[in-house]
């Protein structure tokens, strides 16, 4: 998912596409194929193929710190002012405490079950991140990216420190400059929409995940019920001994088949939860982070607008000795603002096209999975019902309720 791709420009006289304006073709094909835990770190195996004649096929090992270093390098060594930088997914949990916290979050605070490692989910998130980077027409050409993907040894890096003071300063800057009125109505509308969408997307993603967790808990409860039915005994104290024995035998078999039907429901719930998470859940989580990245880009552009407006006011108030210099500063600030605005327009257009396409695919996969799971469960339950009906003695007073 590239945030920006130039669109081909056609020569209206002959209809040809200008080679200079052709869409950027990625230089690499990237897959995060597996992950293993090594102490406090999760080691990811990344397979990269250079998409050129005779391109090498390389597999390297990277930990999450390496991904953080890559993200830092991409944003500091490139002019990312108008770029929607692909967001890095959250750090994967690798400790027993992380696993316990995740289990309580997904299965309920009272659970004593600890879920196993699910590093395949982290592999998919990081693979999507890398694919977004390599498909970007600027970030995809970065030398640091090539070093990250190709060199066997992990890059030498300093530990990145997260500054609380820096985060506070950024928040205050957003409050102070974020309300600055835009000179372009389309950008003002986009800013207003994004400000609303940030919290909305976060809430929708969290709510959808909570729904998925409830389905997982439902599956667990049905499994417990099925097990309890299998372990319990059927008894009856009424009626003649022969009748009691007959119904004891039939009752045990009825209970076993009913437990089997409950087990089918449990499995269907588990499959539904997995499909929900892998389709719409994955896309909601991705774009909840991407809308934050778009907001950051729009804020960087707003800062350039504030600098341009400030320079314009200073040029108007400047005294003759400084007038020429202040006019030069104004022209430079205006150029910076126009440049970032031009890049941002292309980024936003491509981002919206890609977002709509990704959600269409996710919704189709989600609907298809729901239909298939429902049909499979219906077929199994119909078979279970038929079996249960055949077990009831023909001379009994039992009558179906339907």
Question: Would you kindly provide a written description of the structure presented here, covering whatever features stand out?
Answer:
There is one protein chain. The protein is mostly helical. The chain has helices spanning 64-76, 96-107, 119-134, 143-150, 164-178, 185-231, 241-317, 320-391; strands at 28-38, 41-50, 57-62. Strands 1-2-3 form a 3-stranded antiparallel β-sheet. Helix 6 packs antiparallel against helix 7 (241-317) and helix 7 (241-317) runs antiparallel to helix 8.
Low-confidence stretches: 1-20, 234-239, 241-247
Note the beta-strand portion.
5-15%
The main sheet comes to: 3 strands, antiparallel
Identify the overall geometry: elongated
Structural class: mainly alpha
Beginning-to-end CA distance, first to last residue: 52 Å
What is the H/E order? EEEHHHHHHHH
Radius of gyration: 30 Å
Mean pLDDT, as a whole number? 84
Helix content: 55-70%
Number of strands: 3
How many helices does DSSP assign?
8
Strand order of the largest sheet: 1-2-3
- Quaternary structure type: single chain
């Amino acid at each position: 998912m590239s945030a920006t791709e130039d669109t081909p420009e056609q020569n209206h006289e002959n209809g040809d596409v200008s080679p200079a304006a052709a869409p950027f073709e990625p230089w690499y094909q990237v897959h995060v194929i597996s992950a293993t835990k090594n102490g406090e770190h999760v080691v990811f195996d990344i397979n990269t193929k250079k998409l050129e004649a005779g391109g090498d096929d390389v597999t390297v090992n990277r930990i999450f710190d390496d991904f953080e270093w890559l993200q830092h390098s991409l944003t500091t060594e490139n002019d990312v002012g108008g770029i929607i930088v692909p967001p890095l997914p959250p750090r994967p949990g690798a400790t027993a405490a992380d696993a316990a916290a995740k289990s309580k979050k997904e299965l309920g605070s009272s659970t004593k079950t600890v879920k196993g490692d699910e590093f395949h989910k982290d592999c998919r998130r990081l693979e999507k991140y890398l694919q977004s980077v390599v498909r970007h027409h600027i970030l995809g050409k970065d030398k640091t990216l090539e070093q990250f993907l190709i060199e066997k040894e992990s890059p030498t890096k300093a530990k990145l420190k997260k500054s609380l003071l820096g985060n506070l300063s950024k928040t205050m800057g957003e409050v102070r400059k974020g309300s600055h009125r835009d000179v372009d109505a389309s950008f003002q509308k986009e800013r207003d929409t994004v400000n609303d969408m940030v919290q909305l997307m976060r809430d929708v993603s969290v709510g959808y995940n909570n729904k998925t967790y409830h389905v997982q808990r439902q599956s667990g409860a049905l499994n417990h019920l099925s097990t309890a039915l299998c372990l319990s005994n059927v008894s009856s104290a009424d009626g003649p001994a022969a009748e009691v024995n007959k119904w004891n035998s039939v009752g045990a078999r009825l209970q076993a088949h009913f437990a089997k039907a409950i087990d089918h429901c449990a499995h269907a719930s588990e499959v539904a939860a997995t499909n929900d998470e892998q389709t719409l859940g994955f896309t909601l989580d991705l774009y909840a982070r991407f809308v934050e990245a778009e907001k950051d880009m729009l804020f960087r552009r707003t800062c350039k607008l504030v600098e341009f407006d400030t320079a314009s006011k200073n040029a108007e108030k400047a005294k003759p000795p400084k007038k020429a210099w202040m006019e030069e500063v104004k022209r430079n600030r205006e150029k910076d603002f126009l440049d970032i605005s031009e890049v941002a327009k292309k980024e936003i257009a491509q981002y919206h096209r890609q977002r709509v396409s990704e959600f269409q695919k996710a919704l189709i996969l989600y609907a298809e999975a729901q239909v298939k799971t429902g049909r499979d469960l219906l077929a199994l339950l119909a078979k279970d019902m038929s079996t249960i009906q055949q077990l009831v003695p023909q001379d009994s007073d039992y009558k179906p309720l339907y």
